[in-house]
Write a structure and sequence with these properties.
258 residues; alpha+beta; four-stranded mixed beta sheet; 8 helices
């Protein structure tokens, strides 16, 4: 793969410098570059199967469980493979795996702990916050923690008792127009969640986005938090609490209004 990448850049430089003999009168420089890039961008089936085998072996050795990977893609400008990992014989596992410079990385630990966190906080959020559109959470632990627990991943609650070297992020979208009149009431609701986090010593950040209820009339049933700018016209308020441990009372919530 590195040879393919190196050759591609050599080709581009060569073509643009005018020093190549690869061009014919019928083809422009751009046409030739695009043609060669297209030919090199798709690895052979043999290469894909080899990387697939390596990835599955890597996951098995790291976590002591059986996995399979699919949806393999090769990004030749960065000499990197991207794929999806799945735990065998169990539905619902779908996580990112990559190979770059001969090294594999994955997000299995993060996805597994985050799923635990979602189950734990689902009833808390549903009870504390009405007008809920949707929400999501992720838990990221430091590399040394992942390495330590890779072969025996604890529950999220167990992990919190063992280490503080992690961080949880919770993002919540509400169909509520935040106004001066209802701010105190809405902040009280958020404080219920924050109180639970603090009582359980959860190292967390919380973002709450308040949208005009008219957003649902437009057929928007779910907020894509990776592209929240798409819903900017409906946004009426935003809370960004970077460290919930600093929130001591419901009145403190207002300090985080953007």
């Amino acid at each position: 793969m590195r040879r393919r990448t190196a050759f591609a850049w050599t080709l581009i430089v060569c073509l643009l410098s005018g020093g190549c003999s690869l061009l014919t009168p019928e083809k422009s420089v751009v046409d030739k570059i695009l043609e060669e890039m297209e030919n090199m961008s798709e690895p052979s089936e043999e290469e894909k199967q080899q990387v697939k085998k390596e990835a599955e072996q890597y996951l098995k050795e790291r976590y002591g469980e059986e996995f399979y990977v699919d949806n393999l893609k090769y990004i030749w400008p960065t000499d990197r493979w991207s794929m999806r990992g799945h735990l065998k014989n169990e539905e619902g596992w779908d996580f990112w795996v990559s190979k770059a410079r001969g090294q594999f990385k994955d997000a299995y630990f993060t996805h597994r702990i985050s799923r635990d966190a979602e189950e734990e906080f689902k009833p808390i959020i549903a009870e504390a916050l009405d007008s809920l559109i949707n929400w999501q959470t992720s838990v990221v632990a430091e590399d040394e923690v992942e390495d330590q627990y890779a072969k025996s991943i604890p529950s999220y609650q167990e992990l919190r008792k063992e280490t503080q070297k992690y961080r949880q992020i919770i993002r919540i979208a509400l169909a509520t127009s935040l106004t001066e009149k209802n701010q105190d009431q809405e902040f009280e609701k958020v404080y219920r969640l924050v109180s639970y986090l603090n009582q359980n010593n959860v190292r967390a950040a919380v973002d709450v986005l308040y949208y005009d209820p008219a957003i649902k009339d437009k057929g928007i049933q779910k907020i894509d938090f990776t592209n929240s700018g798409e819903y900017q016209e409906y946004l009426t308020g935003l809370l960004e609490i970077n460290d919930v441990s600093k929130v001591k009372t419901a009145k403190d919530i207002g300090k985080y209004l953007k």
